[in-house]
Design brief:
This protein is mainly alpha-helical and 86 residues long. It is 59% helix and 0% strand. It has helices at residues 2-16, 24-40, 47-58, 72-78. Helix 2 (24-40) crosses helix 3.
Length: 86
């Protein structure tokens, strides 16, 4: 029990130092739009890639990745910004 308390306290301290985005509903709605658009375009993408792109687009954040090929569709068709390409 004591170790769990320490972990919880440490987690709260770490979380307090980080910005946590809000509005998971908005990111989920963006995910649905991106997923449907990719499927209609014949470019179905892995769920995790769509989720990452949706979070970036929803919060107007650029994506930092070395795996460019998995995000080119989102860049070309949905305006996803990728660091290093700006």
């Amino acid at each position: 029990m004591f170790a769990g308390v320490v972990v919880c306290a440490e987690s709260r301290i770490i979380c307090a130092r980080r910005h946590v985005t809000t509005g998971p509903e908005a990111a989920a709605a963006t995910w649905g739009k991106l997923s449907a658009a990719a499927t209609r375009a014949g470019q179905p993408c892995p769920v995790n890639d769509v989720w990452i792109a949706a979070c970036c687009l929803t919060h107007d954040l650029p994506l930092a990745t070395l795996n460019l090929k998995d995000y080119m569709y989102f860049r070309d068709h949905h305006g996803l910004r990728i660091l290093g390409e700006e």
